[in-house]
Amino acid sequence: MADSIAKVMGAGARELRIDAGATLEEVARAAQRYGLRWTSGRVGDFEAGRTAPALPMFLAAAAALGEVVGRQVSLAELVTGRGRVQITSEFSLERSQLRRALTGESFKFPMPLTSSIFETAHAIINKEAVTASWPPALRAVSPEFRLSVLKDFRESDARMCKNLGVDQVLGATAMAALWGHPFTVERDKRAGPNANAQRRGQISRRLKEDLEKVLNDGDY
Protein backbone atom coordinates (compact mmCIF):
# COMPACT_ATOMS: atom_id res chain seq x y z
CA MET A 1 0.00 0.00 0.00
CA ALA A 2 1.49 3.33 -1.07
CA ASP A 3 1.66 6.17 1.44
CA SER A 4 0.28 9.59 0.57
CA ILE A 5 2.79 12.25 -0.40
CA ALA A 6 1.65 14.31 2.61
CA LYS A 7 2.47 11.44 4.96
CA VAL A 8 5.85 10.77 3.34
CA MET A 9 6.96 14.42 3.35
CA GLY A 10 5.66 14.93 6.87
CA ALA A 11 7.52 11.90 8.20
CA GLY A 12 10.71 13.12 6.56
CA ALA A 13 10.29 16.53 8.16
CA ARG A 14 9.80 14.90 11.56
CA GLU A 15 13.00 12.90 11.16
CA LEU A 16 14.97 16.05 10.34
CA ARG A 17 13.48 17.94 13.27
CA ILE A 18 14.18 15.16 15.76
CA ASP A 19 17.73 14.63 14.46
CA ALA A 20 18.37 18.34 14.99
CA GLY A 21 16.91 18.24 18.50
CA ALA A 22 14.36 20.90 17.59
CA THR A 23 10.88 21.23 19.07
CA LEU A 24 7.53 21.54 17.35
CA GLU A 25 7.28 25.09 18.67
CA GLU A 26 10.62 26.08 17.13
CA VAL A 27 9.52 24.80 13.74
CA ALA A 28 6.18 26.58 14.10
CA ARG A 29 7.87 29.92 14.82
CA ALA A 30 10.17 29.51 11.82
CA ALA A 31 7.26 28.48 9.60
CA GLN A 32 5.36 31.62 10.55
CA ARG A 33 8.24 33.69 9.20
CA TYR A 34 7.72 31.98 5.86
CA GLY A 35 4.00 32.69 5.76
CA LEU A 36 2.61 29.49 7.27
CA ARG A 37 0.16 30.15 10.09
CA TRP A 38 1.37 27.16 12.04
CA THR A 39 1.22 26.39 15.71
CA SER A 40 3.07 23.49 17.31
CA GLY A 41 -0.10 21.44 16.85
CA ARG A 42 -0.23 22.31 13.17
CA VAL A 43 3.40 21.21 12.77
CA GLY A 44 2.41 17.93 14.39
CA ASP A 45 -0.42 17.57 11.87
CA PHE A 46 2.02 18.22 9.03
CA GLU A 47 4.46 15.62 10.32
CA ALA A 48 1.65 13.08 10.64
CA GLY A 49 0.49 13.66 7.07
CA ARG A 50 -2.79 15.26 8.10
CA THR A 51 -2.41 18.37 5.94
CA ALA A 52 -3.46 18.76 2.32
CA PRO A 53 -0.38 18.43 0.09
CA ALA A 54 0.60 21.60 -1.75
CA LEU A 55 3.91 22.69 -3.27
CA PRO A 56 3.94 26.17 -1.63
CA MET A 57 3.47 24.56 1.79
CA PHE A 58 6.24 22.01 1.18
CA LEU A 59 8.63 24.75 0.04
CA ALA A 60 7.87 26.96 3.04
CA ALA A 61 8.16 23.99 5.40
CA ALA A 62 11.55 23.06 3.94
CA ALA A 63 12.72 26.66 4.34
CA ALA A 64 11.53 26.70 7.95
CA LEU A 65 13.24 23.40 8.69
CA GLY A 66 16.42 24.72 7.12
CA GLU A 67 16.34 27.69 9.47
CA VAL A 68 15.82 25.42 12.47
CA VAL A 69 18.52 22.86 11.61
CA GLY A 70 20.99 25.49 10.45
CA ARG A 71 21.42 24.46 6.82
CA GLN A 72 19.49 24.42 3.57
CA VAL A 73 16.93 21.61 3.35
CA SER A 74 15.78 20.37 -0.04
CA LEU A 75 12.39 18.85 -0.78
CA ALA A 76 14.13 15.62 -1.76
CA GLU A 77 15.44 15.30 1.82
CA LEU A 78 11.87 15.08 3.06
CA VAL A 79 11.41 11.85 1.12
CA THR A 80 13.11 9.16 3.18
CA GLY A 81 13.01 5.38 3.30
CA ARG A 82 11.70 2.97 0.70
CA GLY A 83 8.30 2.09 -0.75
CA ARG A 84 5.79 3.74 -3.03
CA VAL A 85 4.27 7.20 -2.79
CA GLN A 86 0.73 7.86 -4.05
CA ILE A 87 0.85 11.01 -6.19
CA THR A 88 -2.72 10.85 -7.54
CA SER A 89 -5.42 8.18 -7.47
CA GLU A 90 -3.96 6.61 -10.65
CA PHE A 91 -0.27 7.46 -10.28
CA SER A 92 2.38 6.41 -7.79
CA LEU A 93 6.17 6.46 -7.70
CA GLU A 94 8.89 4.69 -5.79
CA ARG A 95 10.39 7.01 -3.18
CA SER A 96 13.71 6.88 -5.02
CA GLN A 97 11.94 8.09 -8.17
CA LEU A 98 10.26 10.93 -6.29
CA ARG A 99 13.62 12.00 -4.85
CA ARG A 100 15.08 12.06 -8.35
CA ALA A 101 12.14 14.09 -9.64
CA LEU A 102 12.53 16.62 -6.83
CA THR A 103 16.23 17.08 -7.54
CA GLY A 104 15.54 17.72 -11.21
CA GLU A 105 17.12 14.50 -12.42
CA SER A 106 15.73 13.23 -15.69
CA PHE A 107 14.05 9.84 -15.66
CA LYS A 108 11.17 8.04 -17.29
CA PHE A 109 7.85 8.47 -15.55
CA PRO A 110 5.92 5.21 -15.70
CA MET A 111 2.56 5.31 -17.43
CA PRO A 112 -0.25 4.81 -14.91
CA LEU A 113 -1.94 1.45 -15.18
CA THR A 114 -5.55 2.54 -15.62
CA SER A 115 -8.45 0.44 -14.42
CA SER A 116 -9.42 -0.64 -17.95
CA ILE A 117 -5.90 -1.81 -18.77
CA PHE A 118 -5.57 -3.49 -15.40
CA GLU A 119 -8.82 -5.40 -15.83
CA THR A 120 -7.73 -6.67 -19.25
CA ALA A 121 -4.27 -7.58 -17.99
CA HIS A 122 -5.73 -9.27 -14.92
CA ALA A 123 -8.00 -11.34 -17.14
CA ILE A 124 -5.03 -12.52 -19.18
CA ILE A 125 -3.02 -13.40 -16.10
CA ASN A 126 -5.94 -15.50 -14.90
CA LYS A 127 -6.27 -17.13 -18.34
CA GLU A 128 -9.73 -15.69 -18.84
CA ALA A 129 -8.78 -13.94 -22.06
CA VAL A 130 -8.62 -15.90 -25.29
CA THR A 131 -5.10 -15.89 -26.71
CA ALA A 132 -5.45 -18.90 -29.02
CA SER A 133 -5.58 -16.66 -32.09
CA TRP A 134 -2.28 -15.03 -31.22
CA PRO A 135 0.88 -16.11 -33.09
CA PRO A 136 2.91 -18.75 -31.18
CA ALA A 137 5.69 -16.28 -30.41
CA LEU A 138 3.21 -14.03 -28.61
CA ARG A 139 1.51 -16.86 -26.76
CA ALA A 140 4.95 -17.84 -25.47
CA VAL A 141 5.31 -14.54 -23.62
CA SER A 142 4.42 -15.10 -19.98
CA PRO A 143 1.50 -13.12 -18.53
CA GLU A 144 3.78 -11.63 -15.88
CA PHE A 145 6.28 -10.46 -18.51
CA ARG A 146 3.66 -8.82 -20.71
CA LEU A 147 2.17 -7.06 -17.69
CA SER A 148 5.59 -5.76 -16.62
CA VAL A 149 6.02 -4.21 -20.07
CA LEU A 150 2.50 -2.77 -19.94
CA LYS A 151 3.22 -1.12 -16.60
CA ASP A 152 6.10 0.81 -18.20
CA PHE A 153 3.93 2.16 -21.03
CA ARG A 154 4.09 5.83 -21.91
CA GLU A 155 1.61 7.81 -23.97
CA SER A 156 3.54 7.08 -27.17
CA ASP A 157 3.33 3.33 -26.51
CA ALA A 158 -0.43 3.52 -26.12
CA ARG A 159 -0.64 5.61 -29.31
CA MET A 160 1.43 3.04 -31.19
CA CYS A 161 -1.01 0.29 -30.16
CA LYS A 162 -3.88 2.41 -31.43
CA ASN A 163 -2.09 2.97 -34.75
CA LEU A 164 -1.55 -0.77 -35.05
CA GLY A 165 -5.23 -1.43 -34.37
CA VAL A 166 -4.61 -3.63 -31.32
CA ASP A 167 -5.38 -3.28 -27.64
CA GLN A 168 -2.60 -2.32 -25.27
CA VAL A 169 -2.23 -5.79 -23.77
CA LEU A 170 -1.59 -7.38 -27.18
CA GLY A 171 0.66 -4.48 -28.12
CA ALA A 172 2.66 -4.89 -24.92
CA THR A 173 2.98 -8.61 -25.63
CA ALA A 174 4.43 -7.92 -29.08
CA MET A 175 6.87 -5.41 -27.61
CA ALA A 176 7.87 -7.91 -24.94
CA ALA A 177 8.51 -10.56 -27.59
CA LEU A 178 10.57 -8.23 -29.77
CA TRP A 179 12.56 -6.17 -27.30
CA GLY A 180 11.63 -7.04 -23.74
CA HIS A 181 10.45 -3.49 -23.09
CA PRO A 182 8.04 -0.87 -24.53
CA PHE A 183 8.35 0.64 -27.99
CA THR A 184 9.44 4.03 -26.59
CA VAL A 185 12.39 2.49 -24.74
CA GLU A 186 13.60 0.76 -27.91
CA ARG A 187 13.07 3.90 -30.00
CA ASP A 188 15.05 6.08 -27.60
CA LYS A 189 17.76 3.44 -27.29
CA ARG A 190 18.29 3.27 -31.05
CA ALA A 191 17.94 6.99 -31.65
CA GLY A 192 20.36 8.10 -28.96
CA PRO A 193 20.11 11.20 -26.77
CA ASN A 194 20.85 13.74 -29.52
CA ALA A 195 18.50 12.46 -32.23
CA ASN A 196 16.28 14.99 -33.97
CA ALA A 197 12.60 14.53 -34.71
CA GLN A 198 13.27 13.25 -38.23
CA ARG A 199 15.62 10.54 -36.99
CA ARG A 200 13.21 9.47 -34.25
CA GLY A 201 10.41 9.34 -36.81
CA GLN A 202 12.43 7.07 -39.11
CA ILE A 203 13.19 4.69 -36.26
CA SER A 204 9.57 4.72 -35.14
CA ARG A 205 8.43 3.67 -38.60
CA ARG A 206 10.90 0.78 -38.69
CA LEU A 207 9.84 -0.38 -35.24
CA LYS A 208 6.20 -0.18 -36.27
CA GLU A 209 6.97 -2.45 -39.22
CA ASP A 210 8.61 -4.93 -36.84
CA LEU A 211 5.55 -4.85 -34.60
CA GLU A 212 3.21 -5.38 -37.53
CA LYS A 213 5.23 -8.40 -38.64
CA VAL A 214 5.26 -10.09 -35.24
CA LEU A 215 1.56 -9.35 -34.75
CA ASN A 216 0.69 -10.86 -38.13
CA ASP A 217 2.81 -14.00 -38.18
CA GLY A 218 4.91 -14.06 -35.05
CA ASP A 219 8.25 -13.84 -36.88
CA TYR A 220 10.99 -11.62 -35.51
UniProtKB/TrEMBL annotation:
CDD domains tied to this protein: HTH_XRE
Q: Which InterPro entries match?
A: Cro/C1-type_HTH, Lambda_DNA-bd_dom_sf
At the top level, the lineage of the source is Bacteria
Q: Which GO terms describe its molecular function?
A: DNA binding
Name used for this protein in its record? Uncharacterized protein
Source organism (scientific name): Mycobacterium simiae
